[in-house]
Each structure stands twice: as structure tokens, then as C-alpha cells.
Amino acid sequence: MTREERFWLMDRLARDNAESRANIAERQRQREADPFSEREMLVADARFTKDNSDLVYTDPVASEDDEPELVYKTYDNSEPATAPQSIDADTVSRAIGIVIVELRKEWSAEFKSLEKEIIALRAKVDVLTTLFAGKAKSADIVDLPGRRSDVA
Predict the structure, then answer these.
(1) What's the pTM value of the predicted model, to 2 decimals?
(2) Distance CA 141, CA 133 (A)
(3) What confidence tens digit (pLDDT) does each residue in 61-117 have?
(4) How far is CA 30 from the centre of its chain?
(5) DSSP string, the chain
């Protein structure tokens, strides 16, 4: 973006902001001049205005004999309930397949970390065996200290 383009954008934004402020001031002036029309617009009922963009308000809730214990409400339940969507076997089998693949990935990562730990432990056992047996090979029979060799 060049310097001129940046200045042009800044000027355009300043003009747009000035127009927006003027529109806001004009709407505020109109509201203050006729507050009743603003209230009418806010509580417009589509049943009376015949305008689909207005809300439809229900009758006020009241009890039949003005006792505060029971309240009767009017509901419009004429709209049919939506039927639950059925899931076919192919979709279920694909979902199960995806779960199995993800679990195998997790398990293989865990097995790899366990294999690394086993390799490290085997190396430590080999080192300890070498230390206790001198320079014996791992295939040689080693007498461990504290064991009697005559017990068979």
C-alpha cells in the first residue's frame, strides 16, 4: 500500500465516521421529538401492524378467578414436531472406523514410549549384570551375592 492510498483510506474513513455521527444525531433528534413513536415501534405487535417483521405478543397471563395459585396459559402447539433423523448403518460403521483409527494412533504412541522405556531398563540391567559379574558375557551364568551355589 502506498502512502497516497493510505491517506485516501484515512480520508474516506473520516468521512464515513462523520456521516455515521450525523445519522446518529438525526435519529436521536427524531426520538426526542416524538418519544411515543419510538415506544410504538418497540412494542409493535404483528397482529395489529400486519408487518411480518414485528413480533407477535401473546395475551397477558391471568388466572380465571383472579386467584394467585393457578395460572392458565395459552399455547399454540399446532406446529408438528420434527421427526428424529435416522442414521444409516454406513454412517455408523464409518464413525466407528474413525474412532478405531484414532484409538490405534493413541495406543501406538503409548506402546512406542513403553518400548523405549523397556529398552532403557534392559540396558540398565545389562550394566548392573556386568558390574556384579565382572567382565562376564551376558550368556554366562553369574552367581549373585547372597545365594548359595550348592542348592539345586
Answers:
(1) 0.28
(2) 9
(3) 555 565 556 666 666 666 666 766 777 888 889 999 999 999 999 999 899 999 999
(4) 43
(5) --HHHHHHHHHHHHHHHHHHHHHHHHHHHHHHH-HHHHHHHHT-BHHHH--TTSB-PPPPPB-SSS-SS--B------SPPPPPPP--HHHHHHHHHHHHHHHHHHHHHHHHHHHHHHHHHHHHHHHHHHHHHSS--TTS--PPTT--TT--
